[in-house]
Design goal:
Radius of gyration: 30 Å
Number of helices: 26
Number of strands: 13
Helix content: 55-70%
Oligomer: single chain
Distance between the termini: 36 Å
Shape: elongated
Structural class: alpha+beta
């Protein structure tokens, strides 16, 4: 490692040139990475709702559909609007009553169910827009954007496709703001904590490389979710900044004894690599634990963030030393007073009052432990979006004008007899909350002779060996009422066709709820196990991982318990990933504190003295790293209009503070009290036990 470190210091200009050149393909890779805005597509492919989506896309060419509510518009103007919409690239067809009967024919000639579907009592009508590509596809997104430009004030577009386009527009608008806030807030903390004035700017320049590399290499994953895109920069900045801080502090320490600045940096690289390797492994393992989720969104976030941490480590020992050595004269020249002190008084207080601190912590922890299991969670993804978005407003208009909150697509085998199909439709109509059931039989059995029904209409309901029934529900997706409704409908469908499926936003959300419940337990257990094993290997101990994981897990439970007392309902994804992110990102603080405590014990200090020194010496690094992580994520939570992003960042920022407090106040007390156990259950905890035990 020393030879490698010397090569880095000697070839620092070459490294910087190569680092800059690598930014070029990374930028192209980032621009070429597909961003997925539809979380429901991350559901397991073997679920009935996902199988149904495949049928809709492959057989019925109904990969995505939007509904447009038209108010106060004459028939000629509606026909012109329909024609304009059909001319939009990406639109496959636009369906209205003119596809069934001549517009001069009274609408009363339509079957009652069809008439009810397209018209309401106040005269509003509805157009159905069918797209060539799935809802989250770029072609559909572009088509949605053009359609919104065509519509006037009396037209409202609703449905999942419209809302996903709104999501894309909002994310693209807010992303630069997220980065600006995270960088600005992090710089502020670094300026307050580091005496070298230009070092924060060098740190940010150094962070640019792994962040851009991370986004560039995402192209090899095929796609990433918009949640990953929005959070990756902020999380990578907050999680890996402490690597830079560790390198700088070690460099300054080595300069006191080294023969030259180059020798000091060689020693700093060598020792920093050793220290950050163990801590980064726990962070990487924590993120990779998300890959155990059935909802592959976890794999999406986990792989990208684990990759980002790894790239952060590589750049910390290559690019950052090169930057520091290149600008070392300017670094030494410009200094200022620091405002984040070493916590000397706090260290004395913690050691002196360790028992009362632990008792007080346990008393605080118990109610939060109980509360965290009772925190309310919601699964309706669109509730996390601003309600004034055009797609949300249009979907609400469908509810007001047509009592259409969600639509269920029932797909059965085309060998089902007409009588069975008719009976199936009748039974579905009788389910609570289903106010309308639409099928091809409604046309055939209506006032329109079959010979006059266009082939396009038949193709909507019959294709690829399947028949489709559309059922409109008054209930909101993700609600208990709709989940119960769907359970009843599934039983009915399976009675007529064991292979029949129900799909649509409501069915997929129901599956999402069931999958998320399993994922929550899987991710938490996996992350705890992998972090436990890594710490056990690093410390060669059976007790140290218990102590450190317990400390961070208690902080996580307090964090997740707070929303219960504040009456806050969390988006489902936050409750799944927050524990893993907080554990992986802040267990480093616990490792740093415990390592220093062990070093001081081996230096001949008693357990009390070792804990006091550890708190005092580690406090600046922990405070700087923790506050930087807090500032980066909290600033984003203040500006994000997307509740999913805002709430997740708020939880992460609060978790950083809680973990930091637990490590600085509670863990030292635990180390002193449990030190006899640590000695007996850790291989070579003390190098000279006969001396240190006597002093203890």
């Amino acid at each position: 490692m020393e030879h490698f470190a010397r090569w880095i210091v000697k070839r620092r200009k070459l490294i910087l040139v190569l680092a800059v050149l690598l930014l070029i393909p990374s930028v192209f890779g980032a621009l070429g990475t597909y961003i997925n805005y539809d979380i429901l597509t991350y559901l397991p492919k073997d679920l009935d709702s996902m199988i149904g989506e495949t049928y809709l896309e492959d057989d019925f060419n109904m990969a995505s559909v939007s509904m447009i509510t038209v108010e106060n518009m004459s028939t000629p103007d509606t026909l012109k609007l329909k024609s304009d919409l059909e001319g939009v690239e990406g639109v496959q067809k636009v369906m209205w009553t003119s596809d069934f009967i001549d517009v001069t024919t009274p609408k009363e000639m339509l079957p009652s169910d069809i008439q009810k579907f397209f018209y309401n009592d106040s005269g509003a009508t509805m157009l159905i827009v069918q797209f060539d590509a799935p809802s989250a596809d770029a072609r559909t997104m572009n088509a949605q954007k053009q359609i919104k430009n065509i519509l006037n004030k009396d037209c409202f577009i609703g449905g999942m496709s419209a809302i996903l386009e709104d999501t894309k527009s909002l994310i693209n608008k807010e992303m630069p703001l997220y980065i600006l806030c995270a960088v600005g807030a992090s710089l502020l903390i670094l300026f307050l904590s580091l005496k070298e004035t230009i070092v924060p700017l060098i740190f940010m320049l150094g962070m640019l490389f792994p962040i851009v590399y991370n986004f560039g290499t995402n192209i090899f994953l095929g796609q990433i979710s918009y949640i990953t895109e929005a959070l990756a920069t902020v999380l990578q900045l907050g999680v890996t900044m402490d690597f830079s801080i560790f390198l700088l502090h070690r460099y300054e320490e080595e300069k006191r004894t080294a023969a030259s600045d180059e020798d000091a940096m060689v020693a700093a690289i060598k020792k920093t690599f050793s220290s950050i390797t163990g801590s980064s492994l726990t962070t990487i393992a924590g993120f990779l634990a998300m890959c155990t989720m059935q909802l592959t969104l976890g794999e999406d976030i986990g792989v990208v963030m684990a990759k980002g941490v790894l790239l952060g480590v590589i750049c910390t020992i290559t690019v950052l030393p090169s930057l520091i050595m290149t600008f070392r004269r300017a670094i030494e020249k410009h200094t200022h007073r620091t405002f984040i002190p070493k916590l000397k008084r706090t260290s004395n207080f913690v050691v002196k009052h360790r028992v009362p601190i632990l008792i007080a912590f346990i008393m605080i922890f118990i109610p939060f432990f109980i509360a965290q299991s009772k925190t309310s969670v919601y699964y309706t993804i669109f509730d996390a979006l601003p309600q004034d978005l055009p797609g949300i407003a249009g979907t609400n208009r469908l509810k007001e004008d047509f009592d259409m909150t969600t639509s269920h697509f029932i797909i059965v085998d085309d060998t089902l007899s007409e009588k069975n199909l008719s009976d199936l439709s009748d039974e579905l109509s009788g389910v609570d909350g289903i106010h309308q059931v639409l099928s091809y039989e409604k046309f055939v059995g209506g006032a329109i002779p079959e010979m006059f029904i266009p082939d396009d209409v038949r193709d909507i309901f019959e294709a690829g060996g399947h028949k489709m029934i559309l059922a409109n529900s008054s209930y909101k997706s993700g609600s208990d009422e709709q989940n119960n409704q769907l359970s009843e409908m599934i039983d009915i469908v399976k009675k007529y066709d064991p292979n029949g499926v129900i799909t649509g936003e409501g069915a997929m959300t129901k599956d999402l709820i069931e999958v998320a419940d399993v994922d929550f337990n899987n991710v938490n257990i996996t992350s705890i196990i992998v972090v436990f094993v890594i710490i056990a290997i690093v410390f060669r101990s059976a007790s140290v991982p218990v102590l450190l994981v317990a400390a961070i897990e208690s902080a996580i439970m307090i964090n997740l318990g707070i929303p219960y007392f504040t009456g806050t309902t969390l988006p489902f994804i936050t409750s799944i990933v927050i524990g893993t992110i907080q554990l992986g990102a802040t267990v480093d603080y616990a490792i740093l504190m415990t390592t220093r405590f062990r070093e001081e014990r081996n230096a001949g200090h008693t357990a009390k003295e070792a804990a006091q020194i550890a708190v005092e010496q580690c406090s600046q690094s922990i405070l700087t790293s923790g506050l930087t992580f807090f500032a980066a994520t909290f600033s984003v939570s203040l500006v994000s209009r997307m509740e999913l992003i805002g709430v997740l960042c708020k939880l992460i920022s609060r978790g950083a503070l809680i973990s930091m407090a637990v490590i600085l106040l509670v863990l030292p007390a635990l180390l002193v009290i449990t030190e006899p156990i640590l000695r007996k259950t850790t291989f070579h905890w003390l190098k000279k036990p006969e001396i240190t035990e006597k002093k203890a």
